[in-house]
Amino acid sequence: MISYYQCLNFIVEIIIVDTRNTTELARELGRCLIEMRNFLRQYIQAKIKEHQMDISFEMIEIMACLWNKDGINQQEIADIVIKDKSSMTYLVDNLVKRNMVSRKVDADDRRNNLIYITKEGRLLQKKLNPWILEMYETAASGIQKTKITQSIKVVKKMSENLKAEKGLVIIM
User: Fold this and answer.
1) pTM, entire model
2) How do residues 39-59 score in pLDDT, each as one tens digit?
3) CATH top class, domain 54-139
């Protein structure tokens, strides 16, 4: 049987949810996404430290882009990981020095460098992949697949709305 206090808490939750408007909920969603990204970053950084690896979270973000699509230019990577041009150059330079990636001039446009994963970069992927899978399994624990799919659609729609806003420059 539900106690009086459980019932009261349930009613209070309903009232709080119902009184928040769409803008307030969108703001909370944005805050939650930022918070989740910070937790993901902390998780990976803890694993890096635990295994005494000499690589930064930002470098791993770049590698993850290339694991999904090898041979893309620096600007495309910068847009995906939301980094400015100078930061991207610095990070790619460090990955080249570590022999994780190589730069090749784009045959179609000599102004662009295409970034490719090396054998060492693929070995890093094999090492990190179990950590990444474990992290996302933990994050998704107890959440239905349909809820995650629905959340992805909502966030994508909100991003599209911002991109469509006139005069607003969004890097994605």
Assistant:
1) 0.74
2) 999 999 999 999 999 899 999
3) mainly alpha
